[in-house]
Amino acid sequence: MKKSTAKKENPGSKKENQKKQEKPSFPIVGIGASAGGLETMEQFLGNVPENQTEKFVATGRLATGSQNGMISTSPLGSCVAVIAYDKTSKIGGIAHIMLPGNSPKDDKAEENKYAENAIENLLDELKKSGSKNANIEICLVGGANVLKKENDTIADNLIFSIFKIMKQKKLSIKKTSLGGYERRSATLNLSSGIVNYTVGDSTEKKLCEFCS
């Protein structure tokens, strides 16, 4: 009598194959970046399509919009978010600025990290959308010494640079949340003109209302 040569299937391997074939039934709702992945994350968030309801502004990026939708920053440490809004036309935008002064090199991809370039480019984008500088008001959020270094002047220098530019361009600063030691975030509602922000792990609260 011949012995059967058919291979018995290992129950364990069958379960493993089923797991490989199964697809997750949940949506992806977040993006993370470990060391070395920050630049890729910034590029993704800084290039959210124009027709999206909510735009995210990463470091060295800016975004504008009108009438509807939201514009939100990625977390702000020593960086400062310059939030500009024209309450007449309901056109607004945010620049997420990292460094004071002007870009030292002719690099369009990096120039919005610098205060002078970012603010100038933000105003240009708002103007293209139909806004007028005379109608624009500003809110500022960020500029914290999150590393708590005693002689760290990065945030202070950036804040000073932004205030200087605001004065030169005769732009009205409506409200600020600057300094301290905790990270912040900011969101602009383009329809209502309301700016909400967080400090550290706090819940979101209203900073200002441009339309009031």
Helical segment tally? 4
Strand content: 25-35%
Estimated structural class: alpha+beta
Instruction: Look up the CATH topology.
Output: 60s Ribosomal Protein L30, Chain: A
Succession of helices and strands: HHEEEEEHEHEEEE
| Overall mean confidence score, pLDDT | 83
Biggest sheet overview? 5 strands, mixed
**Any idea how many domains?**
1
Number of DSSP E strands = 10
**Main sheet: which strands, in order across?**
1-3-8-9-10
Assigned CATH architecture: 2-Layer Sandwich
* Molecular shape: globular
In terms of per-residue confidence, which ranges show pLDDT below 50 for 5 or more consecutive residues? 19-37
What is the class in the CATH system? Answer: Alpha Beta
Q: N-to-C terminal Cα separation, in Å?
A: 95 Å
Could you list some keywords that capture this structure?
alpha+beta, 60s Ribosomal Protein L30, Chain: A, 5-stranded mixed β-sheet, globular
